[in-house]
Amino acid sequence: MFPFLEYFLVSHKTILKNVGEFYDFISRMFAEHLRNLDENDQRSFIDAFLIRQKEEAGSPHAYFHDGNLTRLVRNLFTGGTETTATTLRWGLLLMMKYPKFQEKVQEEIALVIGSAQPMYSHRGQMPFTNAVVHEIQRFADIVPLNLGHETAKDVTFRGYFIPKGTYIIPLLSSVLRDETQFEKPEEFYPNHFLDSKGNFIKKDAFMPFSAGRRACAGETLARMELFIFFTTLLQKFTFSFPSEVTDVDLSPLVAITNTPKPHMICAVPRC
Ligand code: HEM
Fold first, then answer.
1. What's the pTM value of the predicted model, to 2 decimals?
2. In this entry, which stretches build a coiled coil (predicted)?
């Protein structure tokens, strides 16, 4: 987001080395896909891209070139791994901190899913669990600064003139913690997403995936992953404090993403 800060990074060389290894891995993956490529049996995004690449071969304005494929796959990996994992880590931490909510989720799992494999289609019958997953995302606020954007033309927004080419940081935190939208913005409070009868309610201000045309491309996948992994983990385990620990610090480690501080956790199998 701020390329000039690159030179102040202590672990600059390690980061570049890791990025290099990551690119090597992606190149090996492409080579493998190219070897087994079958136009009549496209197995993945990479296959579809490589076929378009063949179609546009020789064009002077080629878009589907290797450099673009590498960056796209890199974006899917980086955008799609830490985000979901960090949200789940917040989820387990919050369940440990608030055992009453954990118990209620487990009761709903027992009622709707039992010992079967949790599926995304169960979500509609599980308003409390759905509200808890939404509240985890709201409270954790894992991408507080969103990604940087730039105005493509002159804009006047709420009386402010913003010239074309201005670097914009749309703060998602300011929406996720907006006290006009959420009754107790600083607390973990699943009722933010429930009505008085316990039905799930959508909130326009719920935008951990941002909004507009450039909102998260993986939102649908991420929502499925979060629901299925969270319910599966709570179906199989109860998360609690280790015996020597009595409380946990919920303030995040601040970086581009908000992650939980290192902590201990007990996962007790449920028989
Ligand atoms: C809890 C999980 C996730 C959260 C909170 C999240 C959040 C975000 C946010 C805030 C943005 C920036 C949107 C903007 O610029 O306005 C973004 C972009 C993006 N995300 Fe996610 N994301 C998650 C999971 C995923 C997954 C699973 C994938 C793909 C496998 C993914 C792929 C992307 C991509 C490709 C972009 C760039 C979209 C673009 O610039 O057009 N994300 N995400």
1. 0.91
2. none
Residues with CB under 6 A from ligand 1: 75-76, 79-80, 83-84, 87, 142-143, 146-147, 208-210, 214-218, 221-222
Q: Can you tell me which atom of ligand 1 is nearest the CA of 214?
A: 41
| C-alpha 29 to ligand 1 mean position (Å) | 22
Domains of the chain by range and CATH?
Answer: 65-269 (1.10.630.10)
Residue nearest atom 40 of ligand 1, based on CA coordinates: 214
Which residue type sits at 108?
A: E
CA angle (144, 149, 209) in 5-degree steps: 45
Q: Which atom of ligand 1 is nearest to the CA of 77?
A: 30
Q: Which two tokens stand for residue 268?
A: 């007790």
Ligand 1 centroid – CA 104 distance (Å) = 30
What does the angle CA 245 – CA 249 – CA 253 come to, to the nearest 5 degrees?
A: 130
Crossing angle of helices 99-112/219-236, nearest 10°? 90
Beta strands in 88-152 (DSSP E): 149-150
Binding-site residues, please? 216
pLDDT per position in the chain (271 positions), as tens?
677 777 777 777 888 888 889 989 998 988 899 899 999 999 999 999 999 999 988 888 888 988 899 889 988 988 999 999 999 999 999 999 999 999 999 999 999 999 999 999 999 999 999 999 999 999 999 999 999 999 999 999 999 999 999 999 999 999 999 999 999 999 999 999 999 999 999 999 999 999 999 999 999 999 999 999 999 999 999 999 999 998 999 999 977 889 999 999 999 999 7
